[in-house]
Amino acid sequence: MIKAIIIDDEPLARMIVQEYLQSYPEITVVQECGDGFEGIKAIQQHRPELIFLDIQMPKINGFEMLELVEEPPAVIFTTAFDEYAIRAFENHAVDYLLKPFNKQRFDKAVRKWLDQYMAVQAPMPGDAPVESTTVSSGNKTRELLETASHSPSQQQRVVVKTGGKIKIIPVEDIHYLEASDDYVKIHTHNGAFLKNKTMNYFEQVLDPSQFVRTHRSYILNVQQVTRIDPYEKDSHLCILQSGASVPVSKSGYVKLKAVLGL
Predict the structure, then answer these.
(1) What is the second-level CATH architecture of the domain 2-152?
(2) Which ranges of the chain have pLDDT less than 70?
(3) Please, which residues have CB within 8 angstroms of residue 232's CB and are 6 or more apart in sequence?
């Protein structure tokens, strides 16, 4: 049995996918979800092989939901027209269904995935080893999320998971970011939160007129700066409204002065 989950805030859209899947007795829908919060819990509980995922949803969108799933399953995206998302799908050979889609287009997407899945489950004698669908779909999904993160709609907030709960952090609430092993620690007025991303990732996606990488381990929200103090050698310290101090390297100081117009 192949387990599938449908994640879409539109009941009609979920019903259509359910109806079309009746042609595939090998696929069983183990749960329907109306938002990304439900979707994360369902994926953790059922460990499905395949999900049908809408992008535009309330609370958190489909891309943000996938960021919080440690081992994402294979995904067939369902979405209304979104030029940026579709370009990301096509760049990474991820299948998507553009709403409204018909049974023929649905069948094409599902059969494509089934062919890949069955090839891994039962390789022909003499065939070279095939990368597992879990690994390959996970890699595809991570690459897709890297591309999608540059969409303007994805740059206004950061979604984190903390203590089993999901928190949405608007970028204007971020004071500074700090490298922390394999994570980035996001400091806000409500505390600090860990995100499984890199400093380079945030340097690329955050607005460079608002966020400056002052040090290899720090990115600073310039709106939070109250003063810049000299430190040892050619370095400085930025003192923030919260009272926190953020180191500024020699090269970081040049970038910071340029953004602040000093």
Answers:
(1) 3-Layer(aba) Sandwich (3.40)
(2) 81-82, 84-85, 88, 90-94, 122-143, 146-154
(3) none
